[in-house]
Each structure stands twice: as structure tokens, then as C-alpha cells.
Specification:
alpha/beta, Rossmann fold, globular, 7 helices
């Protein structure tokens, strides 16, 4: 039976509650790692198991900011469950007219020029291949499931990694576009690097929750408000769930 680990964040803090409302059995547990404990939710379904990890480790109204997330703990916890697949759900700012806020695309590559290294191998050199970061079959399954619900789904998106916690400036966005980026986020870069070291298949969904700075049609001076970003991302949970079930049925 399939086992899929879902790593999520902005707008997805109630994703496990959605499964509970649908009648699925949920079990909360914690996974120990050398970098701290990770709260997880296990969901039992007919075709296997879903494990959800909130990368921000939310407790009440407090959420770990993106620049302080211990990604090694999260990916270590994900890999320790021996999954068939790891699914990253990332809230992103869109630079493409065909990916407005409220739509979901499928990530195809990462543009991560941040200076902080992320690795499980600090004492012995280990060089993981990242030529094909994301699993082709899983990406196609997500593309099909999303297209059935939203009509059009951009694929092979290049996700630029920025560290946050501030949103980017218009000049930074323009530079990222010239480098080939389609969307920008604060979490997929480290996750993709660490998953590559595990050898586990990885797929990522880019949830467009806002226009990137300076890219709002008709209003390039529009400000980005995190509460509005979170609210927009929240509306995408139903489509994310469809992707999860589509993956479970074919893995």
C-alpha cells in the first residue's frame, strides 16, 4: 500500500482537519530527529497512509518563520517513515500571467542561489545529483488531477528560492525573471536539496497565493499582505487533496 508524506505550510495548516471532516482516522505523533522533534499527523485510508508535516510546526497562533525552519528535521522525519513519495506544497508569488493567485502549478526545477547550505552530510562530502529534481510520473499525475479541477495547469515551473521572511522587492523579482524563474517562494529550495540526498521520489505543487512584487496586473505598486496570502492559499486545499488521492491511487 502507498505511503505519501505531505510537507505543507502557508494556508495548509488545517489540511489534516479537512481529512478528519471527511471521516478519515487521524493519529498525531512526534518523530525524533537529531535536529529536534517533528509533529506529524498520520491519516489512514483504503489505499494506504498519508503523513502530513506542517513545516512551520504551528502551535496555536505561533508559527516558525521561514528563515528559521529546521528543514533537516522535517526531511529526516519524512524519510524515516519510508514513504513512496514526498509531496511539497509551497505557497508562491507568481510572475506569470497564466498563473494568477488562486491557481496551482506543478514545479519542474528550482533556482536556489541562497547562501545557506543544507545537507545531512557535514562531516563527509556527499554530492547528490539534482539533474532531475522532481519525479516525472508524480508530476504528471498532479497535472492531470489539477487540470480536471481548474481547467489549466502550468507545469515545469522554475521556483526561485528566497530566504525571507520579508517579501521580495520589484527589482529582485525582475532579476529572478531574467534568470528564468516563474514563481518565488521561501521553502522549496532547502527541501528539494535535502530530499535529493535521501533518494526518495519528490514532487512539488506551486500554490499561487499572490502576485510577486511589482507584477500585479494594472497596479505594479500593489503591496503584498501576508494575511491575504494565507487566506488565498487556504482556498486551494480542496485541489491539493485531489492531488494527494490521485498520487495515493497510483503509487
Amino acid at each position: 500500500m502507498a505511503r505519501v508524506v505531505v510537507i505543507c505550510g502557508t494556508g495548509m495548516s488545517s489540511l489534516s482537519s479537512d481529512f478528519a471532516e471527511d471521516g478519515f482516522e487521524l493519529t498525531n505523533f512526534r518523530t525524533e530527529s537529531p535536529w529536534g522533534d517533528v509533529p506529524c499527523v498520520l491519516i489512514q485510508c483504503d489505499v494506504g497512509e498519508i503523513i502530513i508535516i506542517d513545516r512551520h510546526h504551528s502551535q496555536g497562533t505561533s508559527r516558525t518563520p521561514p528563515h528559521n525552519i529546521e528543514h533537516r528535521a522535517n526531511i529526516n522525519a519524512a524519510s524515516s517513515s519510508d514513504p513512496n513519495l514526498i509531496l511539497s506544497i509551497n505557497s508562491v508569488g507568481s510572475m506569470r500571467e497564466d498563473l494568477p493567485p488562486g491557481m496551482i502549478g506543478v514545479s519542474g526545477d528550482v533556482l536556489d542561489l541562497s547562501i545557506k547550505p543544507w545537507t545531512f552530510h557535514d562531516h563527509d562530502a556527499f554530492h547528490a545529483d539534482r539533474t532531475s529534481i522532481f519525479d516525472n510520473l508524480a508530476s504528471e499525475i498532479c497535472h492531470k488531477a489539477l487540470t480536471e479541477s481548474q481547467g489549466f495547469t502550468p507545469t515545469n515551473l522554475v521556483v526561485a528560492q528566497c530566504v525571507g521572511p520579508q517579501f521580495e522587492s520589484p527589482s529582485e523579482i525582475d532579476a529572478l525573471i531574467r534568470l528564468g524563474a516563474d514563481v518565488v517562494g521561501m521553502t522549496l529550495g532547502p527541501e528539494s536539496r535535502l530530499v535529493a540526498e535521501t533518494g526518495i521520489s519528490h514532487v512539488a505543487l506551486a500554490c499561487s497565493s499572490n502576485w510577486a512584487a511589482g507584477k500585479t496586473p494594472g497596479n505594479p505598486s500593489a503591496e503584498i499582505d501576508h494575511q491575504a496570502v494565507d487566506a488565498m492559499a487556504t482556498t486551494l486545499r480542496a485541489r491539493v487533496k485531489k492531488c494527494i488521492f490521485a498520487l495515493m491511487n497510483q503509487y
